[in-house]
Design brief:
It contains ten helices and two strands, in the order αααβααβααααα. The chain is an all-alpha fold and about 260 residues long. A two-stranded parallel sheet has the order 1-2.
Length: about 260
């Protein structure tokens, strides 16, 4: 049965309401689980974080003490009265959105599915699965590898011995969240490339031809988004992004318009 414009508009309104309700429920749950939520966020700032423990174990096995990270002796401060409460709300909203994302993506797909052909539905499902997996991979890479290295270096860097480093609450949280978001979005490169290839904008031969240019562009981008200027952090960002670029070339090799 053909539906009118107003029927589609009503379905869209219902979908948006359900998505907003799911986000709100997840955000309230995250707000109530404050200790768990902030234990996860502040874990990279503690000596017991899994990445640091692995480095200490590797240093003992190899006998290279230089690999072991120095003890964490950085304090956090808050200088605004309402900042902790507002930070709690903002982080809960972000955590709630992330938790509700699978349901939101499903509702969006269910709304668009009736207008898609069978092969388009198959492509849409694959894009949703692949995009979600790549986004989570980028976030986890930042949380377990890139941010801990960057935080350790910046937190221990001092311009003068008598000036101690005390990191503000919002500086720590926003740096972690923004880097996670940026890495998650950048890891969508294969999905974006595949979509561009299906539209005839790019192809494998074109990407291979500009592979060296892409490496330079990725290096510049990595230098911009990473808060440190050290070569290790730069390499940790550049290498996976360049590997994703190579993967994108292989992925669109046999794409047909």
């Amino acid at each position: 049965m053909n539906k009118s414009f107003w029927d589609h508009l009503e379905e869209l309104r219902g979908m948006l309401i359900r998505c907003a309700a799911a986000w709100l429920v997840c955000a309230v749950a995250a707000f109530c689980l404050r200790d768990v939520l902030f234990d996860v966020l502040f874990a990279p700032s503690t000596d017991g974080f899994v990445t640091y423990r692995l480095l200490h174990r590797l240093a003992r096995l190899t006998g290279c003490t230089a690999m072991a990270p120095p003890p964490m002796n950085i304090g956090f401060i808050n200088i605004r009265l309402a900042a902790p409460f507002m930070m709690h709300i903002q982080v809960s909203l972000i955590a709630g959105l992330l938790a509700a994302c699978p349901y939101i993506l499903y509702r969006c797909y269910a709304f668009l599915a009736p207008a898609l052909y069978l092969n388009e539905k198959r492509y849409a499902r694959r894009l949703i699965y692949a995009g979600s997996l790549l986004f989570v991979t980028g976030v986890l890479l930042n949380y377990f590898v890139i941010f801990p290295f960057a935080f350790r270096m910046l937190a221990h860097y001092q311009v003068y011995a008598t000036v101690p480093n005390q990191i503000s609450l919002d500086s720590y949280i926003y740096t972690l969240l923004i880097l996670s978001l940026v890495l998650g979005v950048l890891f969508e490169l294969p999905v974006v490339t595949w979509c561009l290839a299906k539209m005839g904008i790019v192809n494998a031969a074109l990407l291979r031809r500009y592979r060296k240019h892409a490496l330079v562009a990725i290096l510049i981008l990595a230098a911009v988004i990473t808060p440190t200027g050290d070569a290790i952090t730069l390499l940790l960002v550049t290498l996976p992004l360049y590997l994703l670029y190579i993967l994108s070339i292989a992925l669109i090799r046999n794409v047909r318009l």
